[in-house]
Write a structure and sequence with these properties.
heterodimer, A: mainly alpha, Cytochrome Bc1 Complex, Chain D, domain 2, 2 domains, two-stranded antiparallel sheet, two-stranded antiparallel ribbon, 16 helices, B: mainly beta, Immunoglobulin-like, five-stranded antiparallel beta sheet, globular
């Protein structure tokens, strides 16, 4: 008769038969496997060809730029794919006359030589904003714009900074005058006849400045509507320009495409053991791919990740909680009179979550395309380096307010450096028509020179 | 006794996961029922979901048809239906607020605004109210 097993032995036996035991065995096997590869690498041995499971291959394919669907028309902007609108939008993007002080254009913060952002924690227009400048390439595929998603189209996004007191600092009446004086032909070719602006003051709009706002309120509603329509068309032209700023394959894309096609890698797409380990972490244990998914490495949604407050942040920056209310009430949203969409086309807006604790201090998941070349990070540039970002996600501190979705990752310093190595692979060239991001020459020497008449 | 055993196993599993640095919420429970036809909690309805295009896409708005019938097969129309859901292991809800937008007849109800923004285990819950009472049914999805 065998002795009756004690409680610990019974628990151990049950554990042996459980799913937990299977996971422990596979975890130990994984550690041994990883160690073997590391030892081989340390001795300069030829690494075996990376093997990805069927699920991993599906995941890799979903992240490759080849999985990006062709850009669908924006139903709210029927001029979005009109080359004449795009050419006009290009002129406007670089034109500093579209500002209160004649010195700020879209390109002031969206710098062509810097991945169309400015490399500073907070953007500087006529003043300083509360947020980090976001890049533009590939964003025509997005559903929501700005860190808090307060607009639902690229053209509505373009209008926000133009009337912001700290960005372009101008008014829509001023911009309508600029169009009438300098772009009448190009504008009317696309959008039809401009309204008469004879009775329209040089500065008027629903802006912070009291004088300009008062002038706006004194205008008849029909005239306000006509000017707002010109203003909306400015946004639509800029969006048509921005829609042509796309992404070209990165080293990561070339690696995935070659790997999945079963072709041998060459020096342009082979991964180092660190980079490959980082990729495995990214799609596995580090959970990055939960939110940074799809070919643009974003789920186009909003998350509270416990990012600390910025020293220069607004007293209360509630992120998506306010942003979604602004989007729903937006003067230029998909359902507005200035949109070209039918009501059924505005599903993102119609079915948006508009309340709930999850929205508090939630910000948009940024694309990780070219992330390594785009410090500082987060919505107000709170982190100076990728290492700081990765350390934040590893520790998962509590949010300043609202509730962080993160859990500590318990990654080792080596694993964090592997993730950083992988992120370097995502540096993605911009693809545009030739000369698309060069300052239009007419802005320098021609009759459209930098004279701030309005 | 069964529950004590289960607690033991889950405790050991948690310790193992912690020791190996794995995230508990990375894997859904193994015994989830992913069937697309399910009986409601109190047994009042049999519900079937038919996602548009059959395969549930990630990151795209799409439609479902929810078919409701009594256990004897009688279609259920003219009811109030609300939709809710989320990712139990992540602690967040659906990224959109789906709604039943049309009664298609014969027990079919059009659900608009469905979207799932990440891979993993999702649940979608329908609360169904008729003159005779209310009940709910939960579907598990693996994306």
């Amino acid at each position: 008769m065998s002795p009756r097993p004690n409680g610990f032995a019974r628990a151990l036996r049950r554990f042996r038969d459980s799913a937990a035991f299977a996971i422990l065995v596979s975890s130990i096997a994984g550690v041994i496997g990883t160690t073997a590869v590391s030892v081989a690498a340390a001795h300069g041995a030829q690494l075996p060809r990376p093997r990805w499971s069927a699920d991993e291959r599906t995941m890799l394919k979903s992240l490759s730029l080849t999985s990006l669907q062709p850009l669908a028309p924006d139903p709210s902007n029927r001029f979005g794919d009109d080359p004449r609108a795009a050419a006009l939008g290009r002129e406007l993007f670089f034109d500093t006359r579209l500002s209160g002080n004649g010195k700020v254009s879209c390109a002031t913060c969206h710098v062509p030589a810097q991945d169309l952002q400015d490399g500073t924690p907070l953007a500087h227009g006529v003043g300083t904003t509360a947020r980090r400048t976001m890049p533009i390439a590939g964003t025509a595929h997005n559903s929501w714009f700005f860190w808090d998603g307060r607009t639902d189209s690229q053209w509505a996004q373009a209008l926000g900074p133009l009337e912001s007191a700290v960005e372009h600092g101008g008014t829509r009446a001023q911009y309508a005058h600029v169009i009438a004086k300098h772009y009448r032909g190009e504008y009317e070719d696309v959008f039809g006849a401009l309204p008469s602006l004879v009775q329209v003051p040089r500065n008027a709009g629903p802006v912070a400045d009291n004088a300009a706002r008062g002038a706006w309120q004194r205008l008849p509603s029909t005239q306000r509507d006509e000017i707002s329509r010109v203003y909306a068309n400015i946004g639509k032209a800029i969006a048509a320009f921005e829609r042509r700023i796309e992404l070209a394959p990165s080293r990561f894309d070339r690696y995935v495409d070659t790997e999945l096609a079963g072709r041998p890698h060459d020096s342009t797409d082979v991964l180092s053991s660190n980079e490959e380990a980082g990729l495995r972490l990214f799609i596995g244990k580090a959970n990055c791919v939960n939110c940074h998914n799809g070919p643009l490495f974003t789920d186009n949604h909003f998350h509270n990740t416990g990012v600390p407050k910025s020293k220069l942040e607004l007293p209360v920056d509630s992120g998506r909680a306010l942003g979604v209310r602004q989007a729903v009430a937006g003067e230029f949203n998909c359902a507005s009179r200035y949109s070209d969409a039918k009501p059924d086309d505005c599903e993102e807006l119609t079915f948006a979550v508009t309340e709930g604790d999850e929205l508090v201090r939630a910000y948009k998941t940024p694309s990780l395309r070219s992330v390594a070349a785009r410090a500082p990070y987060m919505h107000a540039g709170q982190f100076a380096s990728l290492n700081e970002v990765l350390s934040h996600y590893n520790r998962a501190p509590a949010a300043p307010f609202g509730k962080s979705e993160l859990r500590p990752l318990h990654l080792s310093p080596t694993e964090l450096s592997q993730l950083a190595a992988f992120l370097q692979l995502l540096t993605t060239p911009i693809a545009t028509p030739k000369g698309w991001l060069e300052q239009p020459s007419t802005h320098v020497n021609g009759d459209k020179g930098h004279v701030n008449n309005y | 006794m069964q529950s004590i055993r289960r607690t033991y196993q889950l405790g050991i599993l948690a310790a193992v996961m912690l020791a190996t640095g794995c995230m508990m919420f990375a894997r859904p429970p193994k015994d989830l029922d992913y069937s697309r036809t399910r009986l409601s909690a109190a047994g009042a309805y049999r519900a079937t979901i038919r996602p548009q295009g059959d395969t549930i896409p990630q990151g795209k708005l799409h439609r479902w048809v929810l078919h409701l019938e009594a256990p004897n097969g009688t279609p259920i129309d003219g009811c109030q239906i609300t939709v809710d859901g989320g990712m139990p292991q992540h602690g967040h809800g659906l990224p959109t607020k789906p709604k039943v937008t049309r009664d298609l007849g014969n027990g079919d109800h059009l659900v608009d605004g469905m979207k799932f923004n990440m891979g993993g285990w999702w649940v979608v819950k329908f609360r169904i109210a008729t003159a005779t009472g209310s009940d709910s049914v939960v579907f598990n999805l693996k994306l």
